[in-house]
Amino acid sequence: MVRASPLVMGVLMFGRQRDQPGVLLEPSAEAQIDDVSDQSQMTSFRNKIWPVIEEGNKLLPAFSKIYKEMILITSPNKPLPRAGKGTILRKAALKEYEKEIDQIYETVESNAGTVEPPTNWELSMVQDWLTTQVEELCHNSVNESDDIFEHGFDRELVCDNSTAASGQFATGRR
Q: Does the keyword Phosphoprotein apply (predicted)?
């Protein structure tokens, strides 16, 4: 689906043996980004391609969905390596972009730890903390007995919230 977009010349998924997948996108000539360090150009391209990725995400199981922060855009100075017939050489491309891919995962992991844990781990405090996390994600006031799917949650948001919560539980901050 993404490959068919006129914004994209090449696409390669990455993330084997990682918590979440990402996608390496090579913009087409008309969508080319001159400077991948220019965040406004990067954000603009991500926003343009995002509806296409969302459509593709609808066809995928929750664990395979691509999140916006997991979109890596190739540099015009470092095109995806291709075979004679134009096929992307997966192994070579992953090697070529290994540092950038690792950086995306480091950034995502460091941002995942920014959620403040509950002040203590008594059941009522954890319930209040989880309710606050849900309210921040769905931008609505909720009760702990509410069906969060009625507040605009989908499986993706549940996975995000579960990841944030389990990250706090796993750190042993008690």
A: yes
Identity of the residue numbered 28: S
- Is-above-0.85 flag for pTM? no
Distances in whole angstroms, Cα of residue 142 to Cα of each of 137, 138, 152: 11, 9, 11
How long is the chain? 174
Alpha-carbon distance of 36 to 27, in angstroms, equals 11
Going along the chain from its start, the domains and CATH numbers come out as 8-111 (3.30.300), 116-170 (no CATH)
Could you say which DSSP state residue 94 is in? H
Measured at the CA of 66, the angle between CA 60 and CA 68, to 5 degrees, comes to 145
∠ at Cα 7 (6, 11), nearest 5°? 100
Q: Distance between CA 87 and CA 173 in Å, rounded?
A: 48
- C-alpha to C-alpha distance for 82 and 89, rounded to whole angstroms: 5
pLDDT digits (tens, 9 = 90+) for 28-87: 998 988 888 888 888 899 999 999 999 998 888 878 889 888 999 999 999 999 999 999
What is the distance between the terminal CA atoms of the chain, rounded to a whole angstrom? 45
Encoded tokens for 126: 């954890």
Which two tokens mark 40? 């406004």
The DSSP code for 15 is -
